Amino acid sequence: MTVRTRFAPSPTGFLHIGGARTALYCWLESRRRGGQFILRIEDTDRERSTDVAVQAILDGMHWLGLDADEGPFYQTQRLARYKQVADELVAAGKAYYAYESKEEIEAMREAAMQAGEKPRYNGYYRDRNEPFRDDPNRVIRFRNPAEGSVVFEDKVKGRIEIANSELDDLVIFRSDGWPTYNFAVVVDDIDMGVTEVIRGDDHVNNTPRQINIYHALGAPVPEFAHLPMILDQEGKKLSKRTNAVSVMDYREQGFLPHAILNYLVRLGWSHGDQEIFSREEMIALFDIADVNKAASRFDTEKLAWLNQHYLKTDEPQSFVAEFEWHLQRVGVDITKGPAPVEVIAALRERVHTLKEMAERAKIWYGPITAWDDKAVAKHLGNASAPGVLEAARALLAACEWKPAAIHQVIEQLAVQLELGMGKVAQPLRVAMTGTQVSPSIEDTIYLTGREEAIRRIDAAMAMAHA
RNA sequence: GCUCCCUUCGUCUAGUGGCCCAGGACACCGCCCUCUCAAGGCGGGAACACGAGUUCGAGUCUCGUAGGGAGCGCCA
């Protein structure tokens, strides 16, 4: 039987980083084993599900390149099927109607807590054999086995056993006519032939209940793998308030999708000492059974390192489009400056993100907007600066406009004026950028363009004399 | 409260009884290189939560303690 995994988010928010890792692992597991990856939107919570969130999740998945083989399926479109299965369960005596109000249930829970027990349903209607009646409080509850225990071998956590006496008769159909999560997932996973259920470990405690439903339905139980949580830098639960949680936030911060994937694949999983994984390597080497049991923290510094690694080793062509997206976001008109690929070549070793790259590229697409006083004083205010600028102006007006040729001009200048490279390059750097930090001087000048470079030297000469 | 789960450098991790006075990576510090900033090279500090056991031998097995997390919904 072929392996089928599924990613089943509920559309109540954006695709967050933990969900992205779950999706990645599902995707990798299906890819390595030659199976299928299914996307299913769990939108039975009519109160909180939104179309905006559905779109955000789809966009996030697409941006990461985690394309599904099947779906997206929507649970809201499968209502008739859930009803049918629930009715079968009731007919077979494996589920029953119950009529307590929410308030009554709440009171029941509190009473149980008082008595030092788990808060749960007391089973009032379990053996009452109450027939269907039209009642606003009517729900369908699953008749959970009273005896024995449920045991399963989790591919991440290992053997897990929970006594049925710990489980109560959960609601599988709400009074509003919609199925609950625990029921809908099982019906869907059976119908969709899911063989590997890979999800967050906040679902571990639901698994025994679901296994009981599989049994009641006479369906084969899939394999389970529960992934530990991803915590923030402080070891706290990731929260929208203090962390970037949406994968699209990471896009805005200038991270490459592949860097995020590489970071995520190593968070909780490893292959010896290897840190860098191409898409193909991930697929070939990843195994859900090798995932760690413990929660891990999200370390933006390491993500930044990976991002830079890909920035400086990937073919610039492969991410120019993404870079141009960032250039536009910082208000750059890319027709008014150098080709973005050339900017990438100059900056890729000096920044960690595309956002940073775009910020620093601004100086080549428009006038210098700010002068660093210290830089001006130090490098334009010294004795040799005017001579350097003047000589450079003359040579740059005539040389071939290529970084290598410009480099020669600078060197020639240093020899001619009997100055160190620093004395020659720094005044020019300040002239080109208004600051004392930039890529190599020849790249900086080259990207500025001849006309503009000369204009900036003129401006700098005025400042040097003043 | 009850149930389930987790615990190796600051962080991500290697490690499946001897190869470990614990390896790699990020971060940090130092040196080198150098037109600035980076990148790169070299080097450094830094961990088996604790306590009992089992064993000739334990980071690795068992039990306990402590700490952390998740769940206990007509949310997913």
Keywords:
466 residues, mainly alpha, Glutamyl-tRNA Synthetase, domain 3, 4 domains, three-stranded parallel sheet, 11% strand, RNA-binding, nucleotide-binding
Number of domains as seen in the coordinates? 4
Q: Examine the coordinates and then state which fold CATH places here, giving the name of the CATH topology of the largest domain.
A: Rossmann fold
Shape: elongated
Radius of gyration, in Å, reads 31 Å
Mean pLDDT: 93
The fraction of residues in strands falls at: 5-15%
The tally of beta strands, per DSSP, is 12
Q: Report the helical percentage.
A: 40-55%
Q: Unreliable segments (pLDDT under 50, ≥5 consecutive)? A: none
- The CATH H-level superfamily of the largest domain is HUPs
Distance between the termini: 81 Å
Task: Just name the CATH architecture of the largest domain.
Answer: 3-Layer(aba) Sandwich
Let me know the largest β-sheet: 3 strands, parallel
Number of helices, counting only DSSP H or I runs of 4 residues or more: 19
Q: What does this protein look like?
A:
- The chain is mostly helical and 466 residues long.
- Strand 6 (149-154) and strand 7 form a beta hairpin.
- The chain has 19 helices and 12 strands.
- The strands form 5 sheets. It has a 3-stranded parallel beta sheet, with helices on one face. It has a 3-stranded antiparallel beta sheet with strand order 4-5-8.
- Helix 5 (181-191) crosses helix 6 (207-217) and helix 16 (403-417) crosses helix 17.
- It folds into 4 domains: 1-68 and 228-313, HUPs (Rossmann fold, 3-Layer(aba) Sandwich); 80-173, Alpha-Beta Complex (Glutamyl-tRNA Synthetase, domain 3); 315-364, no CATH class; 367-465, Arc Repressor Mutant, subunit A (Orthogonal Bundle), CATH 1.10.10.
- It has helices spanning 17-32, 51-64, 79-91, 102-114, 181-191, 207-217, 247-252, 257-266, 279-285, 300-313, 320-329, 340-347, 354-361, 373-380, 385-398, 403-417, 421-433, 441-448, 450-465; strands at 4-7, 36-41, 70-74, 95-98, 139-142, 149-154, 158-163, 171-173, 196-200, 223-227, 230-231, 296-297.
- The longest helix has 16 residues, at 17-32.
- The radius of gyration is 31 Å and the shape is elongated.
- It binds one RNA strand of 76 nucleotides through helix 4, strand 7, strand 8, helix 5 and strand 12.
